# Entry
Amino acid sequence: MTIISILFYLFLVIACIQLAYYSIFLSFFGLSKPKKGKAYNIPVSVIICAKNEAENLTQNLPKILEQDYKSFEVVLINDSSSDDTLEVMESFAEKHRNIKLVDVKSIEPFWGNKKYALTLGIKAAKHDFLIFTDADCTPNSNQWITHMARHFSKKKSIVLGYGAYKKIKYSLLNKLIRFETLFSAFQYFSYAKVGNPYMGVGRNLAYRKAQFFTSNGFINHMSTRSGDDDLFINENATKGNTALCYSPESFTVSEPKKTFKSWWIQKRRHVSTAHEYKHLDQFLLGLFYVSQISFYTLAVILLIAGFQWKIVLGILILRIIILYLTVGYSAKKLNEKDLILLTPLLEIFLIIFQLAIFSANIVSKPKHWK
# Structure
């Protein structure tokens, strides 16, 4: 058997793996309908940890305070800011009774550690049901708390939401950022639907205070700078205790990075936690990525060589069709429809971008938050 024929059979195996993954993403999320949950007014604590976010808080906090929800408090955590963040928080607290301030001072063992600041904020929260977002996020509607809170129940102690990024016209970087966010979302929602929730995003996430303290909070990964959201979910989320919330009213929208360099630094920090995921999750995510890059690489080699090119081209077209369907249905569900047309190009860029990030993180550790 020649080398080129071995590569062809390897391509067929990898193609089956890719088609299986995308079929799962399509059927379990793309074609699924969001569950409404039971509407009832449980008291909620909204937690926002901020470091040097005076401007964002001034702009976005009013949208949080205007939520149409009967009983909620807002816990504002000032994580040793060097700007006017604390002053902005205090000015809002003077006008709103439902704001609670937590001013975190730097101490040597936990300097710059967001998880330490968040732990103090969680302890200070009055209510058992906690909803997390960031200072640069704004709710998509005044029903955000309602939609997130209604997914809590006696069995469901964790709720995964969708944190979108603001759309900027005529910006390729903006499309790349939002495509990566969309891609990650339909992956973690699909895995959760299958019964294996492995991550969530701190821009829009909820869990019970009791869940946090029962599992000893962030103690098992406190030394890891990132991961207050995904590592906590990876460690604690199960098929039985996790609910999904992706109705449009429940989205949060964040300001995206404006330069490629700043996005690169952000993603390096985010990706750095993946090696601490459960072994099964590392294997499944790794298998998907390796099959992605291998699929395109082998397809190009086989097409250039002209070996079984009709079969290779047919499989390539089939995969692109399934990719379009998966991204298309998911994009409509998550209000990212303008990304559909460029899907294959954006996916190829994302594959290359992730490879560069993995390589960079092997060479040096990424910077911590702020």
Observations:
- The mean pLDDT is 92.
- The longest helix spans residues 3-30.
